[in-house]
Specification:
By secondary structure, the protein is an alpha/beta fold. It contains 12 helices and 8 strands. A 5-stranded mixed beta sheet has the order 6-5-4-7-8. A 3-stranded mixed beta sheet has the order 2-1-3. α8 links the parallel β7 and β8.
Length: about 325
Amino acid sequence: MTKRKVVQPDLIDLLLADYQKPEDLIGENGILKQLTKAIVERALQAELAIHLGHDKHEAVANERGNTRNGSSAKTLKGDFGALPIDIPRDRDGSFEPQLIAKHQTRWSGFDDKILSLYARGMTVREIQSHLEEMYGTEVSPTLISSVTDAVMDEVKAWQARPLDALYPIVYLDCIHAKVRDSGAVRVKAVYLALGVNLHGDKELLGLWVAQTEGAKFWLQVVTELKNRGVQDIFIACVDGLKGFPEAIEAVFPKTAVQLCIVHMVRYSLNFVGWKLRKAVAADLRTIYTAATVEEAEMRLAEFDAKWGMEYPSIVQS
């Protein structure tokens, strides 16, 4: 039996970074729900195609003349909260989905599989492995193969989808996760681009997997964003990787590159001993949570007076 793949907690922490409320991740337009809904509905459509014997818009291929008949709304409850799903129907009511049973209302342990479908190398074998876990061992190889093809198409379409011309803020960061690759567990770099659009909604622009993190690969990422329609970014929020700002400015020369608050605090606390970290972190918080620039400057002056002699590097940062 295939070993269950668990997404590293750091990936979830990164997606939650800078969020104001839980709904930003699991709300109506949350990142996790967008990914989950797309995969599940595409898989159900593939199931129905197997049941009817023909794809959508193709000639009827069964003796009963059974065809598609729209969809019915259903709400699933699980680790991701409440998720509305459109369940496809057939005219004679004989279609019984296997991924989501007719009277099933709960589904747990699925969110990590959805994320890994997007974040990993997306080989057919890996996706088949996930689908076998989702469906169980009693599903025919033909159904698994058909759903795999549909999922592959959905993933590729999502990765290459056009983006907005302008994003006020884009968060760019990379985490290192253990993934199963060709039968072995390896540590790979997962690059993430999380944008805030003009409506104030957070949108996952893309996931990329590589062996290591580097400025050259980030240059490929931002170039791909531009090729997919992004014309300008007001603020790019990044970590302190060497050459990262230059890679962004090479593609978006007018973008203001800002070091992520989380990374700034971590960098600053590297200069502080364990006994004083809590006190220094509390004083730093008064700076980056200030309501106005003037208040932030005043809090910085207070921090400088208190800690400047001992930690001048923090004040400069």
